[in-house]
Design a protein that fits this description.
Blueprint (H helix, E strand, L loop, with lengths): L1 E6 L2 E4 L4 E9 L6 E7 L6 E7 L4 E3 L7 E6 L4 E6 L8 E9 L2 E4 L3 E6 L1
Parallel strand pairs: 2-11
Antiparallel strand pairs: 1-3, 3-8, 4-5, 4-9, 5-6, 7-8, 9-10, 9-11
Length: 115
């Protein structure tokens, strides 16, 4: 099993920044993908950004140029630097770990951007 511990959410004004962190523990495979998804009430969970253990990244179009995903493979930790935040970025952000068809999710951290 893999456990994910998220931190860094909160309340910020429009145009501000936040940094999310997610530390994975347990049975970690060296080759994996970690990332962030977000969800608002009544909507499906959507991809924000993912990064492979090799460093390849993929971003949602809505966050390109504003968010940066990175990781520390020694610490099994993934980060999401969020700049120029907008009210529409308000959501619960979930950390994800994946190897093949296996997926593990964090409990989520609330990000609220006020206008």
């Amino acid at each position: 099993q893999v456990q994910l511990a998220e931190s860094g959410g909160g309340l910020v004004q429009s145009g501000g920044s936040l940094r999310l962190s997610c530390a994975a523990s347990g049975s970690i495979f060296s080759v994996n993908t970690m990332g962030w998804y977000r969800q608002t009430p009544g909507k499906q969970r959507e991809l924000v950004a993912v990064i492979t253990s090799g460093g390849s990244t993929n971003y949602a179009d809505s966050v390109k140029g504003r968010f940066t995903i990175s990781r520390d493979n020694v610490k099994n930790t993934v980060y999401l630097q969020m700049n120029s935040l907008k009210p529409e970025d308000t959501a619960v952000y979930y950390c994800n770990y994946g190897v093949g068809s296996f997926r593990s999710w964090g409990q989520g951290t609330q990000v609220t951007v006020s206008s």
